[in-house]
Design goal:
two-stranded antiparallel ribbon, 9 strands, seven-stranded antiparallel β-sheet
Length: 161
């Protein structure tokens, strides 16, 4: 009887973990320059809540994660610039010109851009993102490099002091 009890406890725990990860929140590790200076190139641990995307509480300025429209296996992190019906003006090719275009975000879509426009693949490249691809809103970031550094300093002090 003890074996089945343990098995049922493990299954319940996994079901609870699955539900929490898919409906409440999750963690994501990011890397790359597209969100400089908000996020580090070397990596950040992001805490993401999934409730705002389901309740429609997202606002321009929020940092969001979403499935890439070009590579559905990739999850991308960008800043939300415009919601459906918003008029957005953006620099078409910031590396080579100052030419701007203005668009109206289509119904059921959002406009996202990286904070570092010179090295970011975002709505300027692939257009407005369907709202259904949004996975959550970032509410907390932890720099992996600085956390590792602080952890290293703590253990070093613990061993030496």
């Amino acid at each position: 009887m003890g074996g089945w009890s343990s098995f049922i406890s493990i299954v319940r725990s996994l079901c609870l973990l699955h539900a929490a990860n898919n409906y409440l929140g999750t963690t994501v590790i990011t890397y790359g320059p597209s969100m400089l200076p908000t996020l580090n190139i070397t990596g950040n641990l992001l805490l993401v809540e999934r409730i705002s995307t389901r309740t429609g509480k997202l606002r321009p300025g929020d940092v969001v994660i979403f499935r890439s429209p070009e590579s559905p296996r990739k999850v991308v992190c960008k800043r939300l610039i415009g919601m459906e019906g918003d008029q957005v003006t953006y620099v078409v090719d910031p590396k080579n010109s100052d030419r701007c275009e203005t668009i109206v975000v289509p119904k059921g879509h959002v406009w996202v851009e990286g904070d570092y426009i010179y090295d970011s693949k975002d709505s300027r490249n692939f257009g407005a993102v369907p709202y259904g691809l949004l996975k959550g809103r970032v509410f907390w970031t932890v720099s992996l490099f600085s956390s590792f550094f602080l952890l290293h300093q703590f253990f070093f002090c613990f061993l030496v002091c």
